[in-house]
Amino acid sequence: MQEPRTGSSPKQSRKPGKRLAPSEKYEVFVQVLSQRAAQREAAGKWQADRSTVVHICRTARQGALDALAASVPGRPGMTAGAAELAGARAELGRLRAAVTGQAVALHLHQGKSRWD
């Protein structure tokens, strides 16, 4: 049976990082992005681990890229799926008008048949 060690390993002496509010995470990201603070300096200022600052920056960058990819020019607030659905509905309206026009032309050309 092994005896417990008396010395502390790096994992045991490491204190848990401070949990940052979303507004604080945004402020960390802005500071690092605008180069007002290096990642190490921002981690020290906000009493967070450096890996936390790296994760905040990666997540904010990916979120910004996803939001930009989803935006459709000229249609504020629409996601890519909503824009595609709006386009499909517009095409459905055009096709419905075309079929109605063809039906009217066919009716005028052949005349009305009796329903007996």
Uncertain runs: none
> What structural category do the secondary elements indicate?
mainly alpha
Mean pLDDT: 80
Helix and strand element order = HHHHH
Distance between the termini: 99 Å
Largest sheet: none
Task: State the share of residues found in helices, binned by percent.
Answer: 55-70%
DSSP strand content: under 5%
Estimate nothing, just give the exact number of structural domains: 2
What is the rounded Rg? 31 Å
What is the topology?
Blueprint: H1 10-13, H2 22-33, H3 39-45, H4 50-70, H5 80-110
Helix pairs in contact: 2-4, 3-4
Can you walk me through this structure?
The protein is mostly helical and 116 residues long. It folds into 2 domains: 18-70; 79-116. It has 5 helices and no strands. Helix 2 (22-33) crosses helix 4 and helix 3 (39-45) crosses helix 4. The chain is rod-shaped, with a radius of gyration of 31 Å. The model has no long low-confidence stretch (mean pLDDT 80).
